[in-house]
Design a protein that fits this description.
Length: 458
């Protein structure tokens, strides 16, 4: 290790302020092309900021570096600091902004409902919601894929978080959340996240002013639900809000209403757009690639869908699993894991990093290393049947003590929704030109050019 410790990260030379801003804009509008261009020029681990500038911004995608980052001690790296960009939406008490013991406590509380039997108890909800969507279709129906998948995943996460009897407030919350998040659904909308000086309230019709009013509406609905639950406690409830309200900290104190709000919005935000975009990509590849479709349909035929197969059997289907894995490899929804800010000087893959350095663990670049994934731009699920990848080679859900708490839930939902859609309907793509990934806030999703037509209903 000692001889590696003098390695210097490659990166762009000192350039003018404006040229750097142009690259910043390029990253917002064409994130994947920018990452590809930089890695071609500078290698798999590189710095983005000019030499010597503070704070330094560095990208890592080699397995060696990712392992060092995901196994670093909490004293070495801060994630809460790196996620400040999300504070305007998630508040400061949601799990993604917490650190240390408070963060660990929240994770221990939130993990069980998204795993094991608690997760599997949502199977029928997922299938019912998908079934409702299908019932609205007839032969020839055309639909934009991502918004429909978003409608399914938003209803699923709302029911997991609030229980089944949300009623009118649940409906209002569904609409308000959709409107609020859609504001960031394009590269121009995403600029408000990256350039805080744009966050100006110039009235309800200005983009930021509109967002603030939508956020207020969402907050009012969340606080009204929290108030109702305080006034009418029901110990038989098993939803996530009930769980959060029953939790006590080490001093026996419950979460405050503001803490509850921040945690709820975090789960709703993290838990539905991501899954919706992943589902939309999966459907795209299946519709676009006849070989993949034929293989998948043959596998699904081994289940007797009319006899309501056990959800666990569905989730264990090897080719369906490989299709979901490859979907999340080729265009990972989160192109980077959360930024990590160096707290004390440390070494990552032989590079010395100073306190204040911002580390981006690049999921997209890790998934496009040609040595591991030959022909990385091709959709080929078989690669996941032929070999296994380590958590530092394949990481659609990030890693270490920040790894996504909803990963099992998201894959469970993807597989059940895909199985139902493909068993009940045939689809074809409306447009034949390839679908480009576009930025949606901090994530990357298929553009709304992705439309399908129902060509058969069974
Ligand atoms: C395909 C769907 C999803 C993808 C691709 C995804 C991806 C990610 C990624 C990359 C991270 C950051 C991990 C890191 O920095 O190491 C993360 C964190 C997180 N995700 Fe997901 N996610 C998905 C679905 C979900 C769902 C369904 C939930 C449900 C609640 C969820 C809740 C969270 C939470 C709460 C965190 C923060 C964890 C922490 O700070 O300890 N995600 N996710």
């Amino acid at each position: 290790m000692a001889e590696l410790s003098n390695r210097t990260l490659n990166g762009p030379p000192k350039t003018s302020f404006w040229l750097r801003r142009l690259w910043g804009l390029r990253f917002i509008f064409r994130p994947l092309e920018t990452l590809d261009a930089r890695t071609q020029a500078y290698g798999e681990d590189y710095r983005v900021s000019p030499p010597g500038s503070q704070p330094a911004l560095v990208y890592f995608s080699s397995p060696q570096a990712l392992e060092a980052i995901f196994t670093a001690k909490p004293e070495q790296l801060s994630v809460g600091q790196g996620n400040q960009i999300l504070k305007f939406l998630l508040g400061e008490h949601g799990i993604v902004l917490l650190e240390g013991a408070a963060h660990q406590r929240q994770r221990q509380l939130l993990m069980p409902p998204f795993h094991g039997d608690r997760m599997r108890s949502h199977a029928h909800v997922i299938q019912d919601i998908t079934g409702q969507e299908i019932r609205e279709w007839s032969l020839g129906t055309r639909f934009k894929v991502r918004p429909v998948m978003q409608s399914i995943s938003l209803q699923v996460i709302l029911k997991a978080v609030f229980g089944l009897d949300g009623g009118q407030r649940y409906e209002q919350l569904r609409q308000a959340l959709c409107q609020m998040l859609d504001g960031f659904g394009s590269p121009i909308g995403a600029m408000f996240l990256f350039y805080p000086f744009l966050q100006q309230d110039w009235g309800a019709w200005s983009p930021w002013g509109g967002f603030l009013r939508q956020r207020q509406q969402v907050d009012q609905l969340l606080y009204a639900e929290i108030r109702d639950r305080h006034h009418h406690p029901d110990t038989s409830r098993t939803d996530i809000l009930a769980l959060l309200m029953a939790a006590r900290d080490s001093e026996g104190q419950p979460l405050s209403d503001v803490e509850l709000r921040d945690e709820l919005i975090t789960l709703l935000f993290a838990g539905h757009e991501t899954t919706a975009s992943a589902l939309a990509w999966a459907l795209y590849w299946i519709a676009d690639l006849p070989k993949v479709r034929t293989k998948l349909l043959a596998e699904l035929e081994t289940l007797n869908v009319a006899e309501d197969p056990d959800p666990v059997t569905i989730t264990r289907l090897p080719y369906l699993s490989a299709v979901c894995q490859e979907t999340l490899r080729l265009y990972p929804i989160a192109i980077s894991a959360f930024p990590r800010v160096v707290k004390e000087s440390m070494q990552v893959a032989g590079y010395a990093l100073e306190p204040g350095t911002v580390i981006m663990p690049s999921i997209y670049l890790a998934h496009h290393r040609a040595a591991l994934y030959p022909e990385p731009k091709q959709f080929r699920p078989e690669r996941f049947l032929e070999r296994q990848f380590s958590p530092y080679e394949y990481l659609p859900f990030g890693g270490g003590d920040r790894r996504c708490i909803g990963s099992a839930f998201a894959l469970f939902e993807m597989k059940l929704v895909l199985c139902q859609l493909l068993s009940k309907c045939d689809f074809s793509l409306v447009n034949t030109q390839p679908i480009r990934p576009i930025r949606r806030g901090l994530t990357v999703a298929p553009s709304d050019q992705l439309q399908m037509q129902v060509t058969g209903i069974r």
